[in-house]
Amino acid sequence: MRVEALKKPFNASFEHLASDKSISHRCAIFSLLSSEPSVIENYLEAEDTLNTLKIIQVLGANVRWDENKITITPAKEIKSTNEKVLDCGNSGTAIRLLMGFLASKQGEFILDGDEYLRKRPMRRVTEPLEKIGAVFEGKDKANFAPIKVKGKKLEFFSYDSPIASAQVKTAMILAGLNGKGCKISEPSLSRDHSEKMLSAMGASLSVDESKDGKIKIEVSPLKSPLKPINMAVPNDPSSCFFYALAAAIIPNSSVEIKNMLLNKTRIEAFKVLGCMGAKIEYKPKSGGYDDTGDVKISYNGRLKAVDVSENIAWLIDEAPALAIAFACADGTSTLKNAKELRVKECDRIAVTVSALRACGIEASELEDGFKITGGVAKSASIDSHADHRIAMSFAVLGLLCGMEISKSEFIATSFPNFTKCLKSLGAVVNV
To answer: Are strands 182-186 and 215-219 parallel, antiparallel or unpaired?
Structure first.
């Protein structure tokens, strides 16, 4: 992908940018907990989420498309798929959530993915599940795909997670729902879509937050199927953030995004951008499974440096894009407590820092983040390491100075309309 520098500012408005990936994955998997058809509008038609739909079909569900609406009719019973592989593609979310879901289902299931997913560690999910009786087989103690799940009915369990991770938490919740219930805790609140969606579907699930921020969740086992899902998937904040970033760094530009998810665990990066000086206006709406609304981001002068070390689980996906904001700010910014970035689609700390240096920006790695001094970026050739968020982040920087990005095809895993939307701002993009 080659992105040319913009010749003039933009003022854009988007009704639909990219449907939320996290919620789309959950819609597909959670629909299997009902006995009735679920109807979902604006399901994300990206490689990752389409793979999840294919998986639930292998598990017996019927998926019917009607323009931008899908109807998922679950199977009466999920049966062993034996040697038939459940291909998660590039999606860490899909494989980790499915581990929890299938761990307490009778039968054997093989979870696998592409060459990049096979390199990502899975012990953060398989280990806690094994501690409560789940059985996995795979390379390095089921740390790497392909992983066989040998499902069985799990007893009631308690699990105190040392990290705030929505993927770990959701996997454990699903294992408890399909088993005999559970108690879970995490040190601070991670993305809570699962809790909100499952509660709305009728699951017996309580969440308590202590004064020190620790989250305790109690889950009762399913006594009957849950209510089906009936929702329109809102715009994804982590995808929309690329366009918020563009508006914040391109002089005299602005962008308005309609119907975006405004869950507090998903808009932390927007708040950081606001702290850096960008003008951000929110118009919340009521109703639905979660908080949604419209948001407008406008250029408000050059950004100012900031130190980010709190609520990292709420902005972990946006970290590479935030690095671009840091590079376009006056002063030195830091991101800390983000060691998880080391085990994403690539080592996002190392790759981001290396790419920024190639652009002439002073940047250095921290063990758990990065330190970046803002400057004037120059055009460069960037290796995205097959990471969609690295590719999109440097594409946005390319709007300022031009950029050549390799392996940009992986953008399709989460945001297939990215290039089209970029062109609508007036950008010249050659793929």
So the answer is: antiparallel
How far is the CA of 86 from the CAs of 5, 34, 55, 231, 290, in angstroms? 42, 21, 6, 26, 29
In this prediction, residue 82 has a pLDDT band, given cuts at 50, 70 and 90, of: confident
Catalytic site residue 114? no
Q: Per 3-state DSSP, what percentage of the chain is helix, strand, and coil (rounded to 5)? A: 35, 25, 35
For residues 217 and 240, the answer to whether their CB atoms sit within 8 Å is no
Nearest-angstrom CA–CA distance, 369 and 87: 31
Distance (Å, whole) CA 389 – CA 51: 19
State the DSSP H helix or E strand holding residue 72, giving kind and residue range, or none if neither: strand 69-73
Non-local CB neighbours of 67 within 8 Å, separated by 6+ positions:
none
287 has a pLDDT exceeding 80: no
* Mean pLDDT, residues 20-43 taken together: 97
> What region, left, alpha or beta, does residue 80 occupy, with left being phi > 0 and alpha being psi -120 to 50 degrees?
beta
Q: If 0-12 CB within 10 Å is exposed, 13-18 middle and 19+ buried, where does residue 76 land? A: exposed
CB-CB contact of 183 with 149 (8 Å) = no
Q: Describe the crossing of helices 47-58 and 21-30 by its angle, rounded to 10 degrees.
A: 0
Distances (CA, A) of 118 to 91, 111, 417: 10, 10, 26
Q: If DSSP codes are grouped into helix, strand and coil, which group holds residue 428?
A: coil
Does the pLDDT value for residue 243 go beyond 80?
A: yes
Show the tokens assigned to 204.
Answer: 């017996």
In tens, the pLDDT along 310-336 reads 999 999 999 999 999 999 999 999 999
Can you point out the beta strands (E) in 201-253? 205-209, 215-219, 230-232
Per-residue model confidence (pLDDT) at position 339: 94
Residue with the two structure tokens 């740390």: 143
Question: How far is residue 45 from each of residues 1, 18, 49, measured CA to CA in Å?
Answer: 21, 9, 7
Q: Which of 192, 317, 383, 387 is catalytic?
A: 317
Domains observed in the chain? 2-19+234-430 (3.65.10.10), 21-232 (3.65.10.10)
Query: For residue 194, what are its two tokens?
Result: 């699962």
Question: Residue 299: what are its φ and ψ, rounded to 5°?
Answer: -60, 135
C-alpha separations of 253 from 203, 243, 287 in Å: 45, 10, 31
